[in-house]
Structures are given as C-alpha cells and as structure tokens.
Amino acid sequence: MKLKDKIIDELRTVIDPETAMDVVSMGLIKDLTVSPENNVSLKFRPSSPVCPLAFPLALEIQKKVKNIPEVKDLKITVTDYQKAAELNKLLQDELA
C-alpha cells in the first residue's frame, strides 16, 4: 500500500463529532502530497471559518499522521479559518 493511501485511511478515522463524518469524506483535507523522502504536506480546511472543533480536529489529524512509521516529516497548513494563524503556530510548536 502506498504511503498516501495509508495516510488517507488513517485520516478516515478522524471523525467530526458534529456530523459523525470523517474529515476525508467531508472534503476537509486538501492538497495531500508525499515526497519521495516521505515528507507529508496537507491542508486542513475546517468546515466553517469559526468551526469550534478546528483545534481538536487539527491536533488529531496531526497525531494520526505522525503515528504512521513511514512519515518522516509533516506539515499541516490550516486554511479558511478565522484563527488559522494561531492554529498553524500551535501545530508547528507541537512538531518541534
């Protein structure tokens, strides 16, 4: 199985409690790329600009992807969210 497929499968386990749907089915994961060195980059677009669950969902996305042994590096960028700068900083700090 390709690493990208493993990541997508893992992200399907991240469930938005308000909709009971996973973040992949909801279309909240954009531009998922995996480099030849297994560095992963993706964009997370919360379901609304003021989504109350954006922080816990982003942290869960990060945790799930980081726990895949083949992933060497991870960059998540939050877009179209009122507190995107704050959340992006938190995600970077979590990886440090």
Give short descriptive properties of this protein.
single chain, GMP Synthetase, Chain A, domain 3, 3 helices, 5 strands, 96 residues, alpha+beta, two-stranded antiparallel sheet, 3-stranded mixed sheet, 35% helix
Outline the structure in words.
With 96 residues, the chain is of the alpha+beta class. It has a single domain, classed as GMP Synthetase, Chain A, domain 3, CATH 3.30.300.130. Helix content is 35%, strand content 23%. It contains three helices and five strands; from the N terminus they run H-E-E-E-E-H-E-H. The strands form two sheets. Strands 3-4-5 form a three-stranded mixed beta sheet. It has a two-stranded antiparallel ribbon with strand order 1-2. Strand 1 (15-16) and strand 2 (21-22) form a beta hairpin. The protein is globular and about 35 Å long. It starts with a helix and ends with a helix. The mean pLDDT is 95.
Low-confidence stretches: none
**Principal-axes shape call:** globular
Question: Helix fraction?
Answer: 25-40%
CA-based gyration radius = 12 Å
Give a summary of the structure in a few sentences.
It is built from 3 helices and 5 strands, in the order αββββαβα. It is an alpha+beta fold. It has a single domain (3-95), classed as Fe-S cluster assembly (FSCA) (GMP Synthetase, Chain A, domain 3, 2-Layer Sandwich).
Topology:
Layout: H1 3-11, E1 15-16, E2 21-22, E3 29-34, E4 39-44, H2 54-66, E5 73-78, H3 84-95
Parallel strand pairs: 4-5
Antiparallel strand pairs: 1-2, 3-4
